[in-house]
Amino acid sequence: MARIFNIYFEFEGMVYNAIVSVRTTAFLTEYTLNNFNENLLELLPGNKILSQSPGHFVFQNASSENSTILMNVIIKAVAEHMHGVDA
Question: What is the mean pLDDT of each run of 10 residues along the chain (87 residues)?
Fold first, then answer.
């Protein structure tokens, strides 16, 4: 079953939001950021976050050229939402 939820996060003094769609396979869970700020998207490796185990999230194709701070803020927002859902 597909899930969709909103996240809100702060980056550089501004509050942003994104719609997150969730797809679960036998091997991982994929979170896709939709309706995402295009300027912020340029700082990321893409719009997909992967999780192979609960509480462990990584951006697909992340590199040192991407904003670690922004990735961590977004992952924290996704993780907090999922913790609230699973609790």
Answer: 88 96 94 94 96 92 94 96 69
